[in-house]
Amino acid sequence: MSVIPRGDSPEASGAPAPNHPRPPSPPMHTRWKGNDIGHAYFNPTIAALTLRATLGRRRAFLFAIPAVVLIALTLVLSATRSGGAVLWPERVLGEFGFSVLLPFTALIVGTGVLGAEIDDGSAIHLLATPVRRGSIVVTKFAIAALVTALFAAVPELLAGLLAPNSSGLAVALFVGALAGSVIYSAVFVLASVLTTRAIAYGLLYVLIWEGLLSNLVGGARILSIAHYCLGIANAIHPDQNLQAGLSLGTSVILGAIVTAAALILATRRLSAFAIQGDPA
Amino acid sequence: MTVIQIRNVSRWYGNVVAVNDITMDIGPGVTGLLGPNGAGKSTILHMIAGFLAPSRGTLTVHTPPAQTVPTWRNPEIYRRLGLVPERDSVYAFLTGAEFVRSTAKLHNLANTGAAARQAIAMTDMAQAADRKIATYSKGMRQRIKVAAALVHDPEILLLDEPFNGMDPRQRIHMMELLAKLGAEGRTVLFSSHILEEVERVSGTIQVMVAGRLAASGDFRAIRRLMTSRPHVFNVRSSDDRRLAALLVGRPYTTAVELTGKGLQVRTSDFGAFCAQIAVLARDHKIALRELLPTDESLESVFGYLISSQGN
What we know:
The complex is a heterodimer. By secondary structure, chain A is mainly alpha-helical. In chain A, 66% of the residues lie in helices and 0% in strands. In chain B, 35% of the residues lie in helices and 30% in strands. In chain B, strands 6-7-8-3-9-10 form a six-stranded mixed sheet, with helices on both faces. Chain B has a four-stranded antiparallel sheet with strand order 2-1-4-5, with helices on one face. In chain B, strands 12-13-11-14 form a four-stranded antiparallel sheet, with helices on one face. The model of chain B has no long low-confidence stretch (mean pLDDT 88).
């Protein structure tokens, strides 16, 4: 009887079949080219998969809605308020652009590039490969920043160019929005690795922290990505109506620290990725 | 030769113990991980695949020339290991060929196209390879997942309920494929809660029940143990009293009881009882109206295995 009782040494069971031949040498096409995947931080295969997944989903239409609203609003205001003192571009492009368009686009894209795959379980096909976890995070982040820039920073530039006498402001807001695309994407990618409720927490951050607290409490601005973006835009095109609360140096340094910290934490978290299943 | 070594591994979630003090060695060939739903099969597979940390114990994989390495937090292990998860989620927007080729690229193979074609051919998916995965049946998704797991020619293949959703023809093909991979010297470990699936593919099985290893070893020995356990049958016939009298004293009969609805017969020999009762009834012109085993659920079989091993 080769059935063994629980706890006994399995060697006694003779469990492994002893007469199997050694695994054959892999054919040439299944041999690795080398360890270069371990060194590259940007993985083109992951990038292509992520782009197709992000832009192919129905919610890609959601990305375009805030951008369309901003451009439509700019066109309407340009047509109806052509005379007198023109102050609305700073308020509309600065406040709506940086408080609504940029963070919400970044939230949907940033939490989706990796979080959607983790939620539906397809991430396991990516993670069951020897690709470095840092490479996965950096590539996903790069695509999130790119798509956010496309759907938030570029519309910001277009709207600025459409508004009267605002070409300088348009460039400043475009650069600020580019920086915001990078920082927000890193933070929201991290959130999607940390929790399955990344969108809910992201909304709370954007609405409560950035929309309310950072405008009421000066100290809260040092943890407000929107204020980093406004600080950068205001340095390029100084304008009181932008209501920037941070200097260029503070904005750039804090933005860089937040981005780097978010990517490092996301990599560490993804390295310890565990399948969440039933308890048994 | 041991390829996967599991020593006193436990895994718990809060107060719930999913896997309890498992020790087993898995070597080349096909091994079936058998157990009812919730037995901890997926948990142990996920731990072997490096997607779950053991709460206690050690779990290592042998790598050439003579190293044993843990799988948890060790992505390098995927150069030698392929995983087919149970969850039916793949990149539905890709075609089957694109999916397998992408996996080959992620493994940084020298010729991704050839590797993908070979893996797709092995799983008999060549005809559907250019269709979007979104249009695949569940069985086809299973097979394309297997192709992706095989694309880098791994020495270890782990499959979580691989036959789920497959039609009989696909099932037979997958069984043949697993048997072939095992015969080539690969270590193939698959989980299933269906006895017949395991019986047809693997000679070696690990039986898990309620997070514990109930039995381990050659399938035929465990199968014998399962079929030679005491069985209880409910029997209805045209003359229950006479049939009861005929059954008493037979070597395979342990007990006979007349109930309001017929007979309840306990037998120590499942095969002999099933063969003889029909002959007995025919010879004595008794019409059998019902012959119903009362405890054939998988859980009761496993329960018996545990109790018999404990004794």
